[in-house]
Design goal:
With about 400 residues, the protein is of the alpha+beta class. The protein contains 14 helices and ten strands. α3 crosses α4 and α7 packs across α13.
Length: about 400
């Protein structure tokens, strides 16, 4: 291959690109171009690289992600988990869904062209198909929230139906899944201490008099424990969930470029996918992006999510009342929704940070992370405080 332009890309990533070219018979290749795949602050545990494979008959574009070097963070497990999803789990779901007569089943995952055991994943570059990240510093409106929740309902329904109709196959997927991060998070682990520290920092920004009711009801340690120990909350209703549902792991496509009218989405990060209650996905997403107006409509959103879930299950030939009764869903929401609240103390700050303020994750020693300040500079403190005060008051009022 000739004309390859130099860009800071790992040898493992380049090797995977070459394997994909050979596998798909794309030769002869005129040129391969590598360029930054995202801006600073858009990805934290990976390097993202765009690839143009220029051929006489046209150009093929890929999106490559590969791991950065971390101290004390189980990055290999993150990647093996995501590779397992792309190589094994989603293909099994695709086959299962394709055999059903579904109007609009779950398909919201980019095409994977290949993976490498050296922590490299090559996907279709969906930016070229019109998908873009949501402005993480903005509040999501009703159209975006509704589309995301309906999409999660489709994914969760596929998980429930697959578990119901091919229990042996589902159990095999769970048995071979190796993404249980809970065992990495021992009682005194730095990561657990970091979460508790971040939550306590958020609570410390509140006014001890004006916000006394919030401070009396919110305990940093219990919220931090729920965030880290979520994996231990598995039960008979657990199914594979996406696991990391913040807005930067969701890409939107808009009708005629109208940013108020999203027509499709893709879920683009599966490093933390795991078997849990669907409530963990929903609360994570909702509580990190909801405005005061959206919070007031929570019950409507939960009704809408559950209606989509039951419709999908019925289309696939399963009984929602047997698999996930509404009373169980609402009970689990009450039991586990604080997970999203706990996540929000760190995520909302990350979402509000400028690209210059975003934590440089590969520069953090995660073995001593409880002593590290993730934000040495943060100019959006007032907006962070406003959002957290609204969310915290909402949680105690519920």
């Amino acid at each position: 291959m000739s004309g390859e332009q130099e860009f800071s890309v790992s040898d493992a990533a380049k090797a995977l690109v070459n394997e994909i070219i050979e596998k798909n018979n794309w030769e002869p290749i005129s040129e391969i171009k590598y360029y930054p795949g995202t801006e600073d602050g858009d990805g934290y545990c990976s390097k993202h690289v765009g690839v143009e494979i220029i051929r006489p008959g046209g150009t093929i574009t890929l999106f490559i992600k590969y791991s950065l070097d971390f101290v004390g963070l189980p990055i290999d497990r993150f990647y093996s988990n995501e590779i397992y999803f792309y190589d094994v789990v989603f293909p099994a779901y695709q086959k299962f869904i394709s055999e059903k007569n579904i109007r609009e089943g779950f398909r919201h995952v980019p095409k994977c062209y290949g993976t490498s055991s050296k922590n490299v994943i090559a996907l279709e570059n969906i930016k070229d198909k019109g998908y873009n990240l949501f402005d993480r510093r903005a509040i999501m409106d009703d159209n975006h929230i509704t589309l995301v929740l309906r999409t999660f309902a489709k994914f969760h329904a596929a998980s429930f139906a697959f578990k119901d109709q091919d229990r042996e196959g589902y159990d095999k997927l769970v048995t071979n899944w190796d993404g249980d991060l809970a065992r990495e998070m021992r009682v005194d682990s730095p990561m657990k201490k970091m979460w508790i520290h971040q939550i306590q920092d958020g609570l410390n920004t509140l006014d001890p008099i004006e916000d006394k009711a919030i401070l009396d009801r919110c305990d940093a340690e219990s919220l931090g424990n729920l965030v880290i120990d979520a994996q231990r909350c598995q039960n008979e209703y657990s199914i594979f969930t996406q696991g990391d549902c913040w807005c930067n792991n969701i890409m939107f496509k808009y009708e005629n470029g109208n940013k108020s009218n999203p027509i499709d989405i893709m879920l683009v990060d599966w490093q933390l996918f795991r078997p849990l209650s669907p409530v963990f996905d929903i609360s994570y997403f909702f509580y990190t992006i909801a405005s005061e107006k959206a919070l007031a409509k929570l019950d409507t959103y939960l009704e809408m999510y559950y209606a989509e879930l039951t419709d999908q299950l019925k289309q696939m030939g399963s009984d929602p009342e047997m698999l996930y009764p509404k009373e169980v869903f609402l009970k689990e929401w009450k039991q586990y929704c604080k997970f999203g609240f706990g996540i929000s103390f760190m995520l909302i700050k990350i979402m509000l940070a400028s690209k210059d303020e975003a934590p440089k994750m590969d520069e953090i020693d995660f073995e001593n992370v409880e002593r590290v300040e993730l934000f040495t500079k943060f100019d959006n403190e007032a907006e962070f405080l406003r959002r957290m005060r609204i969310l915290a008051q909402f949680m105690i009022d519920r």
